[in-house]
Amino acid sequence: MATRGKIAAFPDGNSFVAYNDSVDNLVIGNSEGLVKVFNIHEPDLEPTSIDILENLTSLSNHGAKLLITTTGGELELIDLKSSESKGSIYRSGLPLRDSLFINEGKRVLCGGDDNKLVVIDLENGNNTSSVSLSDQFLSVAYNYTGELLAVGLSSGDVQLYSVTNEQPNLIHTIPNVLVSKIHTSMDKIDYNEEHEDELVSTRPQWTSDGRYLLVPTAVNKISVFDRSNWAEPIKSFDSEAKIIDFRLSPTSDHLAVLDFDGVVRLFDFDSKKTLREIELDLDGKFPLNLAWKDTQLFVGTTDGSILTFKDVVDSATTREINRLFMGEADESDGEDSNTEELGQDEEENEEEAPDVKSELSKPGYRLHAEDSLVIDQDEDDMPDYSNDRRKRHKPNGYSAPRQTTARSFGTVIEGEIKPYSPGSTPWNSENKGSATVERRYLSMNSIGYSWVVKSSSGTDGMSQQTVSVTFFDRGLHKDYHFVDYNGYDLCSINEKGALFASSGYSSKSALDNGRIYYRKHDSEQDAWERRIPLLRGEYITSVCVTNSHLLANMSDESYITVATNFGYVRFYNLHGLCVNLLKMTPVVTMISSSNSVLFIINQVAANLYSYSLVDMNQDYKFIQQDVLLPLKKHADSPDIPLIKGIFFNEYNDPCIIPGIDDTLLILQSWREANNARWVPILNCHNAVTDYGNDNRKGWKCWPLGVYDDQLNCLILKNNHEHPGFPLPIPIVLNIELPILIKDKSKKKKNDILEEELGDSDAEEPEVKQDDPEENFLRSRTFGSLAFDSHNDDNTEETEEGQIEERLNEYMALFDRSLLKLFGESCKDQRLNKALSVAKLMKTDKALMAASKISERMQFMNLATKIGELREKLLNEAEEVDEEEDD
């Protein structure tokens, strides 16, 4: 039986209740303009009082901060640690109805009666932006594991928005599901009489793992929608009267529903079983809202008091552990039979020597909750996932693992290689009450990004990891997510699918083999998972899914590559069949071009790296092999990554941005043996900060890719080293070879940054996009890259026309820049320099123009020498024609 209590917080007025886990206190906000903060562990202590605005409509928490919305249209921010108001951070002409924190507390959302969703950036001077809504705003709920919003509208629709980027993006609408409600209160709210209809609940709520959305419906039900399919609810909970509020327990095991009859019904969320009904004694007044703290329940009321109930549910439960690690009770026998149909190969794989019996005895092995994956039939040591097959004996002829150290099998190098995927970031932790939430990007490129949220409960030690995949072009694919039970820490994304891997890095034990999982973006029907045989001390360092659109005798085929710290590189087709295996020095990372050329970075010794280029079109031929790479770790700043960006450009040339100097390098002439060289084409730090401009001093660049002489990237402000949430909108920076010193005495706007970032007031040093010397060198460099690509046998016919067009553009820029350099040299009367420039000209048309400039400026001797250059060029052209005729 629940223990009842009452907190006479206020003599009257509407009292909303919330529990703030960060300060471990009960927060009660009253419509008369006061917040009281109670320590429920020491009930004899006087509460802390904080003056607030009157006529509040909602409370919301994050960390030690509290948001309050009012009918006066103001959004007030309260600091619970200092017990003071920070004042109004947003004002609206109409009442505000709800608010909350998003993106790790960096931004605030609010909405009211003016048909828009307002976004306030707390890290950038409370700058505001808004999203227009199709109807009056009612409420909003936030899914922090998926960075999703559920916005309730007065029409009854619930709209789902993604907030991974700066601008909320509408991804789906659930139509006509809520009670249709119009707020009429404009000042003081009288819920007991005039505004009783405004008590009807229209606020959705997410489960703590972000997988399900609970929505109060027009027929006194709470419908539960699965995030992976919004078409129909998967289940519902019935109420005998209109619903005022409902709340999930902190672990989402139990659901409390509060109705107009003054009854709180407690449900088991999984089974829908009614556990308890609690009748409230309110003397004709109404309950307002619910709040949980562990097994305690609090009820706000319209008479100023707060009702409390202790031990409303059992404090000890194993349901969450079972759901996370042991498999759900309703898994069908059909799934078991499908797996058994594939059979198990009884032959022992020499590479798979780890103790399978010990592996099978571990609790918790299962696949993704929503996936019915195909298990590879050649994996005889794959653990069974049903309870019946968990008792299976080891295969016949199995022998104990060899007790061999890593030094017997792999090259041991001082300086450990950490698993790395291009665009990945370290973990970022955030405390949400008794739970710890960690986030990181697994991978990021110009197509999209994958990110993972891991939540751990401090009370029961449970943890869960969710992986999401998001695309910059929302029309390319639909975003998706899954619950990850294998701890994936590596990822590779191309336009068709995503590859995930659990590296085994944390344990480095032969008993914990790594795993890979591949799925297509638009369908998981052919998704598969398999284990990678690893030696003791070995782990996966990099994975890659190739972007192939052209392969000899195998059109539109791609491959999956998996590399380890011992230098083993395995190649699989998209169905999980291993097709090749190589051994090299330890692999740091690898990426693939659009025509299946694999760029691999290896570690040769401590802080010494090399690269290789493998053409999978030509039977895994090494185009370049074990060439030293200009790459070093930053000695003074270990937090700066070894590699900040790695990708191919549109000509399939490898590009890399080392963390030590933040300069974009491109590999030129790599198709010729012993002729490849790295060319620096952009200092990213200078480009982003406009060479140390004070207004952009803390800005940093996060690269995504190179295309059309431009770097696609994110701009990180406020000295952030890695992208967080929300993700900035990608912009492009013009390539500019680092050969010039900028003149800070002259001021000019950087058109690209100004347009993309709206920074029109900042004064900046001159950016000489038309500098003839830089134009000359850039046209020469990129013209050479385009020419090499044009002669590549793997280049498709549809691309050849585009490359020829680009070559003509570079040739025109080449001539223009040299003529401008020639004219400037003549103007400065540096005739020897002018002649040296003329010698670089490759066309008679350019030399003729230079000759006319010389004659016009009365430099007749220079004009004569240029005439000799024209004659020499003409003779060379005639000799070439004669050789071709022969």
Describe this protein's structure.
The chain folds into four domains: 3-317, YVTN repeat-like/Quinoprotein amine dehydrogenase (Methylamine Dehydrogenase, Chain H, 7 Propeller); 363-393 and 408-629, no CATH class; 630-739, no CATH class; 776-885, no CATH class. It is 15% helix and 36% strand. The chain starts with a strand and ends with a helix. By secondary structure, the chain is α+β, with helices and mostly antiparallel strands. β33 (463-471) and β34 (480-484) form a beta hairpin. Strands 29-38-37-36-35 form a five-stranded mixed β-sheet, with no helix packed on it. A five-stranded antiparallel β-sheet has the order 30-31-32-33-34, with no helix packed on it. Strands 1-28-27-26 form a four-stranded antiparallel β-sheet, with no helix packed on it. It is elongated. Residues 328-353, 755-764 have a biased composition (Acidic residues).
Any chance you could write out the topology, listing elements then pairs?
Layout: E1 3-7, E2 15-20, E3 25-30, E4 34-38, E5 48-51, E6 56-62, E7 65-70, E8 74-79, E9 84-91, E10 96-102, E11 107-112, E12 116-121, E13 127-132, E14 137-143, E15 148-153, E16 158-162, E17 169-174, E18 205-206, E19 212-216, E20 221-226, E21 235-238, E22 243-248, E23 254-259, E24 263-268, E25 274-279, E26 287-293, E27 296-301, E28 306-310, H1 319-326, H2 333-341, H3 356-361, E29 374-375, E30 428-432, E31 435-444, E32 448-457, E33 463-471, E34 480-484, E35 490-493, E36 497-502, E37 514-520, E38 528-532, E39 540-545, E40 559-564, E41 568-573, E42 578-583, E43 587-592, E44 597-605, E45 608-615, E46 621-629, E47 643-648, E48 654-658, E49 663-668, E50 677-683, H4 684-689, E51 700-707, E52 710-716, E53 731-734, H5 751-757, H6 772-790, H7 797-827, H8 831-838, H9 844-856, H10 860-885
Parallel strand pairs: 29-38
Antiparallel strand pairs: 1-28, 2-3, 3-4, 4-5, 6-7, 7-8, 8-9, 10-11, 11-12, 12-13, 14-15, 15-16, 16-17, 18-19, 19-20, 20-21, 22-23, 23-24, 24-25, 26-27, 27-28, 30-31, 31-32, 32-33, 33-34, 35-36, 36-37, 37-38, 39-40, 40-41, 41-42, 43-44, 44-45, 45-46, 47-48, 48-49, 49-50, 51-52, 52-53
Helix pairs in contact: 6-7, 7-8, 7-9, 8-10, 9-10
